[in-house]
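re: ur question from yesterday

yeah so i grabbed the chain u mentioned. its 418 aa long if i counted rite. heres the sequnce exactly as i have it in my notes:
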Amino acid sequence: MSTGPGGVASTQERGTADKARALNRLSTAYLVAVVAGAGLLLVPFHGPPPGRTCLLVFVALAVSASLVQLLVVQMPAHQAYYSTAAFFLAGALLLPPPLVALVVLIAHLPEWAKYRYPWYIQTFNIANYVWASVGAALVLHAVFGSGRDVEGNAGRLAVAGAAAGVTFVVVNHALLAQMLRLARGKSYRESGLFTFASLSIELVLAMLGIGAAAVWLLVPPLVPFVLSSLVVVHRSLELPILQRAARLDAKTELFNARYVTNALAGELERAKRFERPLSIVLADLDLLRDINNTHGHLAGDAVLRGVAALLRDQLRPFDIPGRFGGEEFAIVLPEAGHDDALEIAERIRHAVERTLFRPPSGTGEIHATLSLGVASYPQSDSADGLIHLADLALYRSKALGRNRVSGASNVSSAQPAA
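ran it thru and got these structure tokens back, copy pasting raw so excuse formatting
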């Protein structure tokens, strides 16, 4: 796994984001230490020039890794999955460490040229993979030896390969987790790098590389058949991203209306079964049309994204925020009674009111407000009923002058104000 920009942005947006993500002093010092350490790691390795077969393997691995490196699977939190670990581990078994490091460097150059990631991201990724790959090579040589005699030593190679794969994954994730901690303020747990899913994926790729290298030593023509499984691995990495995209609103990256409605129905059933509180908040961005007319639709979109970010900051980890469409948001609040939900809604309203949003041009400031309505179980025992009550409360907030919170307990069954 590598660190990355975490998404595609326009040139202007990317420049602003890069400045926001620039390394601080601690993370810069850490980057220098990792890069310097990667260079020093290669100093002890001196030997005769590689032979023709070794150079052939080097070229094959470098070219293959360069192509696969372009097939990135972007993940949240500025992280990305690559399948190139298989080629780096194959190199750890088949090549001397300096050539393994050169494979890592060459593999990252086409990606760097294509996407123009900030220099420190790609530099750290290269140094990180050099550490992990050379570390795996040292473990392989320590356990299996420097020879390439696979026949009759399958068991020994299996043990050495497993040890090398674990070394590769642990070193790679440990270095990256520390960088995310220093540069982004994420704890080791928040990074998600040490979950079973993250570690197992990288370990499978590492084992695949060892298997491909062993097949190369035994029956070279069969190597493409082994590496063809990378297609399945790549598709499996994409699947969670596709599933996540299917339930998110593209503009705000909050949940979409369908997901929120289904989640509300599920939480309502749980609330009934265990007699627990549940609330829903509907929020409407006041006078978005005026913002669009004054500053342009791109500025309006920037405000929507800014409000979405504030929602994520103000809510609890298990709350379910979503965009209902247009300028309307919905928030499902499990384990929140009516008074608690009113307090959360007021906190959100206040956070939006005191925030000045910047348009994409970077000049000027935009002030925005939210009107909110709150409804809670058991005011209604159906999801549609709760949404209707919250909607009535929202319209009451609008009718009373906007930028306020109203609860369904204060709303009659009359038609909402225009």
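noticed a couple things. The beta strands are 2-3, 73-75, 79-81, 278-285, 320-325, 328-334, 356-357, 366-367, 370-377, 405-407. also Residues 5-20, 412-418 have pLDDT under 50 and may be disordered.
anyway ttyl
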